[in-house]
């Protein structure tokens, strides 16, 4: 033994474990005479072609010739398919997190600029009184917003570059691949451009409020209506919607999915706006007159003149929607990765087991693992006819759409028979044996994997005659199955109905899981001593490698989801601070009228509690719908809603809403009312 080879890049998964790899020199191979008549050797040629278009052109040009010569052409991406789910899911999830982070940042920008516009409205009115025209005043404040946005974006790029250099070192054990950070001027410029563009687009709508300020609003700001500007507002909203649409389509794996994501965002905004409208109308109409004063005052704040119910509902609900969507998608993806290579899967595969050896071999398995042993009969078959036509007749068909693929006709099928569906199988058409219709008369049934059925050009009700050790066995296609080939367990193209080939020559595959390495080694020694014809494959090493990759992917997903959740909560806190000054003025007035500390806190708690509950409810409901569609359409996985997760998120958002609201009210409790009222008069 000259050495060992670890982490062979080709044939990941079960294929790498179906036999111990032994590397020989060409000279030793010739001396061993293993390549003589009857050899089952296959030859592989590796080509390096970095250009994807050239590879596709090669396949198109040589496909017919390769098929006639029974040569398979496979790309590296296809060979890595057994590990592709985790990497593909991580890439798609990164796109989703990127969109979520951008949208959350946009909500933060919009909230900050809304506060900025409200605070500068009086100054703009004074400028109008001094002779400033609408457009110059608007452009002046817009320039200030753009300067702030550019400065913030530049600072974000600098911080991002620093984090990029440091983060891989901290997350080295979490990431599924080795990451070597490198500075990309293009990415930095793109980040700066996106930041400036977001600042510009999201500043237009609040800055238009400054443009519409009239000189009289310097004296009657809460009474004097804004002047015109409806066309410009619609233009600003249209530009904002087009920007979100373009970013969603550009960041999504496919433009159609990006458009669907943008549609989900539009639906979220519409639902939240409807919830805010219902909250205002409902609180005004159904507020009981007999309710305590603090409740009536807190609820009436939702529909008072100049209320911020719509703004806060949109900010809170939209942030909740984005965070809940990301967290639920992450939970469903992690659940699927855990199911694909989770603990408890078999780690021993025994083959070439004779039927009279099964019971004795199962008895060798440790007693605590014996109940989980799986035995699958293995029958070697070939296709003798399909719907009465031989393979030669089928290959001679002139219509390509009716001619079965050559590989599916000529291959030797190692099939099984059983009365149940496997753990990695899902019925997509037809019915299983107990429910199968009598369409095939007395013929036994066969269940085909859906892709091989397409290759054979067969469907439900078609007949297939199998050659089993020289005996022809007719069957009828009863069902089609999807098979999860990446599971570390035997899967089959064809599963026959019990009774069809029970008496045929066959062997058995045995799957077992023995966790203790010493017990596993002892079992293999006893197996070799008692049954030398049986081969035992211990693919626990391959399983550990695959599980390590997927566990790191799961950890990366959890980190990204947690990061997005934290960013969302910060945006929510910022949105709630948008009405801090207004709360201080209202609190000063209430204290002047005789309200005490406890009553003020109760009023604030009622108002913010109602806002938080309505916003969270609407956001979570729509987030569940959007998450289900995203998981099923983008990741092609079953959606798994998590009630505890949604409950924890709802409690967190409502808690932050109350905390920020009450914390913002501390200053009005400790500060003399006269100081606040004087500031309001000076403003």
Q: Cα distance, first to last residue?
A: 87 Å
Number of strands: 10
The amount of helix comes to 55-70%
Strand proportion, as a percent range, falls in 5-15%
Number of helices: 21
Largest sheet: 6 strands, mixed, barrel
What class do helices, strands and sheet pairing give? alpha+beta
What is the average of the pLDDT values?
78
Radius of gyration: 34 Å
Global shape: elongated
Task: Describe this protein's structure.
The chain is of the alpha+beta class and 683 residues long. It contains 21 helices and 10 strands. It has helices at 26-32, 52-68, 76-79, 81-129, 134-170, 185-211, 230-251, 255-286, 293-300, 309-341, 358-364, 367-370, 391-395, 406-410, 450-456, 517-530, 540-576, 580-592, 597-633, 643-670, 673-682, and strands at residues 348-354, 374-386, 413-417, 425-430, 445-449, 463-468, 471-483, 494-496, 507-512, 535-538. A 6-stranded mixed barrel has the order 2-3-8-5-7-6. Helix 18 crosses helix 21 (673-682). It is elongated and about 100 Å long.
Summarize the topology.
Elements: H1 26-32, H2 52-68, H3 76-79, H4 81-129, H5 134-170, H6 185-211, H7 230-251, H8 255-286, H9 293-300, H10 309-341, E1 348-354, H11 358-364, H12 367-370, E2 374-386, H13 391-395, H14 406-410, E3 413-417, E4 425-430, E5 445-449, H15 450-456, E6 463-468, E7 471-483, E8 494-496, E9 507-512, H16 517-530, E10 535-538, H17 540-576, H18 580-592, H19 597-633, H20 643-670, H21 673-682
Helix pairs in contact: 4-5, 4-6, 4-7, 4-10, 4-17, 5-6, 6-7, 7-8, 8-10, 8-19, 9-19, 10-17, 10-19, 10-20, 17-20, 18-20, 18-21, 19-20
